[in-house]
TrEMBL record:
Gene: adk
Residues of the Adenylate kinase active site lid domain: 127-163
Protein name: Adenylate kinase
Keywords: ATP-binding, Cytoplasm, Kinase, Metal-binding, Nucleotide biosynthesis, Nucleotide-binding, Transferase, Zinc
Keyword Secreted set for record: no
Name of one Pfam family that matches: ADK_lid
Organism of origin: Acetobacter thailandicus
Subunit composition and interactions: Monomer.
């Protein structure tokens, strides 16, 4: 099964994609994580992406489409994948359908995480991640059981994303409104869109999603 998560920044796409990956053995593909890895390596792609990401702007379609195509051609994607953060423009959505069709594949379901825009900045401001294992926490909704200690690996080392400032979140939400929200009708008309109430606690959101992916 191939799945897309759509939703604004901070809607919970990464949180839910990770849970689905663990439950269903699908591969989570986060284009944001892939870009952050390129920035950390200081590769050509990373150099092109860095300033745009820090300004809350989308990176160019051509760059992200070729990066995504090479990833979904990897053998581990053969049994299904979850796209977290892609597609984000009409051009990306069309390119994705074309690249999958060429390989006799398709997207089975598009999960739209519907979240009130007023909550996004708070969620993002509260987010932090374990440096060692990548587990994501939230100061308000999901802190570790023992303060300052990662539940998964026991590390005490946490980091925040450089684009998680309140100013940048405003820009990221604008990009979402202008470029990503307009692709929702494309998936709705093809009968693949499922709307999930992303305002519920993460475990309840996961339960809603489960109904859509096991049908
Ligand atoms: P990317 O990394 O994709 O960021 P994003 O879309 O802005 O999404 P986030 O990762 O901020 O949020 P999320 O929905 O995953 O929320 P999360 O689960 O972490 O992209 C970053 C940048 O890369 C872009 O700005 C762009 O420059 C570039 N880029 C990436 N892909 C691109 C593309 N396709 N085209 C062009 N450019 C691209 O949750 C957030 C917080 O809330 C966490 O703390 C979490 O614990 C908490 N939380 C989660 N669920 C709940 C809940 N139900 N209730 C309460 N709290 C919750
Ligand atoms: Zn950890």
């Amino acid at each position: 099964m191939n799945i897309i998560f759509l939703g604004p920044p901070g809607a919970g796409k990464g949180t839910q994609a990770k849970r689905l990956e663990e439950r269903h053995g699908l591969v989570q593909i986060s284009t944001g994580d892939m870009l952050r890895a390129e920035v950390a390596k200081n590769s050509e792609t990373g150099k092109q992406a860095k300033a745009l990401m820090e300004a809350g702007k989308l990176v160019p379609d051509a760059l992200i489409i070729s990066m995504l195509q090479s990833r979904i051609e990897q053998p581990d994607c053969r049994h299904g994948f979850i796209l977290d953060g892609f597609p984000r423009t009409a051009g990306q959505a069309e390119a994705l359908d074309a690249m999958l069709a060429a390989d006799n594949k398709t997207i089975d379901v598009v999960l739209f995480l519907d979240v009130d825009e007023n909550t996004l900045a708070d969620r993002i401001a509260g987010r932090y991640t374990c440096v060692n294992c990548g587990t994501t926490y939230n100061e308000v909704s999901s802190p570790p059981a023992k303060e300052g200690t990662c539940d998964v690996c026991g590390s005490h080392d946490f980091k925040r994303r450089s684009d998680d400032t309140r100013e940048t979140v405003v820009k990221r939400v604008q990009e979402y409104r202008n470029l990503t929200a307009p692709i929702l009708p494309f998936y709705r008309e093809s009968g693949r869109l499922r709307t999930v109430n992303g305002m519920a606690p993460a475990a309840e959101v996961a339960a809603q999603i489960e109904q859509f992916v096991t049908k």
